[in-house]
Design a protein that fits this description.
By secondary structure, the chain is mainly α. It has a domain of about 130 residues: Serine Threonine Protein Phosphatase 5, Tetratricopeptide repeat (Alpha Horseshoe), CATH 1.25.40. Helix content is about 75%, strand content about 0%. The protein is built from 41 helices and no strands. Helix 24 runs antiparallel to helix 25 and helix 40 runs antiparallel to helix 41.
């Protein structure tokens, strides 16, 4: 008995093992088969019957796996079925496609198929199905499963066989549910089925606005004259919930006609829709279909500019500013300038904000025929209009534009005058220079001066010689304007020639302008030593105001020879020359003037005025001359404190000490901070110095700040010192 039981047990174990091996082999065979049918593995030749058997076997293998509990695994096997469909639907494999489709259709009727798997099968039929799939999909449109019904409808929408259209039309005829109607109408529209036009048009009057709206969209997708006729039927009725949608659909049909180069019919559609939408705006109780009108006029301009251009004028006169903006935008994008010219002709009649828009259009596109209209609004009461008109004339660029702007540049004021002058400085045109040269040559001094200044701004060929000629004019205002204009062409002016003109110029205004021109020329001179030499020679021979004017220009060139000449003047017995020399030294570009200035300040015989000028000039150079060694600047700063006579200048020196990160000055400021006379000023300067030292010597900076904090000079000083100690100095000084 025991032996029998052992035998049975062994047999059972073997049977289980064999069954397991069989399942494993079956699974492996199924996976291999799917790879073959997906084109991912080499497949044997199969006749139609063998192919059908192989597809069914692969489907039987995948079905239970496509509904597995494990989501990633389930999805992977669903994709395997999709890969099989993609491979079967490849070009030249019609037998495989049809065979797989039929196998999936047969499987759809299996009662054991889960809903999720059935949905996936219908989705694949949407991708590969043709006529053989239509009956099965029609059957699913009657299913209780709402998702399955919609998947079947979508599959029929994509199905290329004509019978799919018939099936959808039949279903639409009996449909009651609004959402289902919308889906069917949309499907027929996507199929662009002309035989569906009448049934879809019948639903334009559906009591459900969603159904009627879907019908309008579907007709626009189908397109053609019959669809347009049906949609116009809606527009010819009183305004309803689907009227705007019908107009939008007609715009879409017109766009399609334009794309197919049927511009005649497209233009008719655009005009009809535009007129309908415009008529609505006349009724205060009706909506203003702005977007419809904008789309219609934009489309009309694209397909028939000759008809659109006259309408642009009516559009911009519309009370809706949005429509006016569209008019300008359409004219800007138009292939010709006709629309822009139509708008420019009515420019003076438009409201100011519309004038600005049209002027911007004219500026962008430019057209000589628009100059007259632009000039008519050039003196508008609205500054925005005036400025836009100036910009338009600048962009057009011609002698008529230049003449108009020159008059504005002469007679007007403020932003309009500046805009006109800027425009003339930049304007292109064959006769702009001629207009300016004529204006500079004749007229009153004021108008000539404006034109002369613009010649310099434009840097026209020969301008330098022309301006040098006007620099000797008998009128001081004209001479002054010429010298100011020479600043703009300074790099092309000969120093000796200009220095001679400066020396011979009389009149305070002209001489001041001449000095500015000479300084500009010296600044831009490539050989500053030679340039300053030319001026120095004339300083020696000139006298009076001319000598002082030339002298005060030498700081623009700098250099040892110029410094020596200015230093001599600063020590002259002539008070006016002496003051000019000191002022020039105070503006010197190099640190080397500091010593001379401090020497002048230290002399007891130096007048108070000259002493103040010398101290301020020296301090400016000490603080700003970063190229000079810090130790040298520190030494001169300490010397400055020692030579100053008054407390006011001593306070200025103390402030300058705070700008130089030096431990020597820190010690001096600490000492001064303990002195009641300059305690607050020295403490603030020391805190500023500590802040300047944070980057170079953080520890020393904090130590200095702590010492100032310990002095407890004031709350403001304390808070600033504490900020430095935290590594974040406060900006600015409180006094």
């Amino acid at each position: 008995m025991r032996n029998k039981l052992l035998h049975v047990a062994r047999y059972g174990i073997v049977l289980v093992a064999l069954l397991g091996m069989a399942v494993s082999v079956q699974a492996q065979d199924g996976a291999d088969l799917v790879r073959q049918l997906s084109g991912k593995a080499e497949a044997p030749a199969r006749d139609a019957a063998q192919l059908a058997q192989a597809y069914q076997k692969a489907i039987d293998y995948l079905m239970p796996l496509m509904s597995a509990d494990d989501v990633p695994s389930r999805y992977n096997h669903q994709i395997m079925l999709q890969d099989m469909g993609s491979h079967a639907a490849r070009p030249g494999a019609e037998v495989e496609r049809e065979t797989l489709a039929k196998a999936m259709i047969e499987t759809l009727d299996r009662a054991d198929m889960p809903d999720a798997v059935r949905h996936w099968f219908v989705l694949q039929l949407e991708r590969i199905g043709k006529g053989e799939s239509v009956p099965a999909l029609v059957k699913r449109m009657s299913a209780d499963d709402a998702h399955l019904r919609d998947y079947a409808r979508r599959a029929l929408e994509k199905n290329p066989d004509p019978s799919a259209t018939e099936a959808l039309l039949k279903e639409l005829a009996s449909a009651k549910d609004a959402a289902w109607k919308i889906g069917l109408i949309d499907a027929l529209g996507q199929r662009r089925a002309e035989e569906a036009i009448d049934p879809i048009a019948a639903t334009l009057g559906d009591p459900d606005p969603g159904v009627a709206s879907a019908a309008a969209t579907a007709l626009s997708n189908i397109g053609g004259a019959e669809s347009a006729k049906a949609l116009f039927g809606v527009l010819n009725k009183p305004l309803g919930p689907v009227s705007i949608k019908a107009a939008e659909a007609l715009i879409d049909i017109a766009r399609e006609r334009t794309a197919h180069n049927d511009v005649v019919n497209a233009g008719k559609l655009y005009i009809a829709v535009y007129n309908w939408a415009t008529k609505l705006t006349r009724d205060p109780d009706s909506p203003n279909p702005f977007s419809i009108r904008a789309a219609a006029i934009t489309g009309l301009m694209a397909c028939d500019p000759d008809k659109a251009s006259p309408e642009i004028v009516n559009i911009i006169r519309d009370g809706d500013p949005r429509v006016a903006r569209i008019a300008v935008q359409v004219a800007r994008q138009a292939p010709t300038k006709d629309a822009m010219r139509a708008l420019s002709r009515v420019l003076p009649e438009l409201p100011p904000h519309h004038q600005v828009q049209v002027l911007g259009l004219i500026a962008d596109r430019g057209d000589l025929s628009s100059v007259g209209s632009v000039k008519r609004v050039l003196h508008s009461d609205f500054e925005a209009v005036r400025l836009a008109a100036i910009e338009a004339l600048t962009e057009i660029g011609c002698d008529a534009s230049a003449e108009a702007l020159l008059q504005i540049a002469i007679d007007d004021s403020g932003s309009a005058q500046r805009a006109a002058r800027d425009g003339l400085a930049l304007m292109a045109g064959p006769r702009v220079e001629e207009v300016l040269r004529d204006g500079a040559a004749v007229g009153d001094a004021r108008s000539r001066s404006v034109a002369i200044g613009l010649l310099g701004k434009r840097r026209v060929p020969g301008a330098t010689e022309t301006l040098l000629g006007y620099a000797t004019d008998g009128n001081e205002e004209v001479r002054s304007a010429a010298f100011r204009a020479l600043v703009d062409v300074a790099d092309a002016v000969d120093v000796e020639t200009l220095a001679d003109l400066v020396a011979g110029t009389d009149g305070q205004r002209a001489r001041s302008s001449a000095a500015a021109a000479l300084r500009a020329v010296l600044t831009k001179a490539p050989d500053k030593a030679a340039a300053s030499k030319a001026v120095i020679e004339r300083v020696k021979t000139a006298d009076g105001d001319a000598r002082i004017t030339l002298l005060t220009c030498l700081d623009a060139a700098g250099g040892p020879a110029a410094l020596d000449t200015v230093t001599q003047a600063a020590q002259s017995s002539d008070e006016a020359l002496r003051e000019a020399g000191i002022r020039t030294l105070g503006n010197w570009p190099g640190f080397e003037a500091v010593d001379v200035l401090l020497t002048i300040a230290s002399r007891s015989e130096t007048s108070l005025t000259h002493y103040v000028l010398a101290v301020r000039g020296a301090l400016r150079l000490i603080v700003t001359s970063d190229s000079a060694p810090l130790d040298t600047r520190v030494a001169h700063c300490s010397r400055a404190f020692d030579v100053t006579r008054r407390d006011d200048e001593k306070r200025q020196v103390i402030a300058a000490m705070g700008a130089l990160p030096s431990t020597k000055l820190a010690e001096r400021l600490l000492a001064l901070a303990k002195d009641g006379s300059f305690q607050t000023e020295a403490a603030l300067a020391a805190v500023e110095l500590a802040g300047n030292m944070l980057r170079s010597d953080r520890e020393a900076a904090r130590d200095l700040a702590q010492k100032i904090r310990d002095l407890n000079v004031s709350d403001d000083v304390n808070s600033r010192a504490e900020a430095v100690m935290r590594g974040r100095p406060m900006r600015g000084r409180g006094r």
